[in-house]
Amino acid sequence: MKCPKCGGQMNFEEFVNVACEGAPWSYEGWRCVYCGEIVDSLILLNRKEARELETVSVGKARGKR
Asked: What backbone torsions phi and psi does residue 52 show, to the nearest 5 degrees?
């Protein structure tokens, strides 16, 4: 997988936090070995939805001319 930010190599990792208050949590995702960008399924879903909303907003703005 290529990094969406810099085009570098992404490595699959499990991210774990046991230092937080409450129950420890973990998730799986990808981290770029060059820039440190982290991507997981939730991040990708949120970015996709944001792009779709942006496209709809731009389309509506163009239609108002």
From this structure: -65, -40
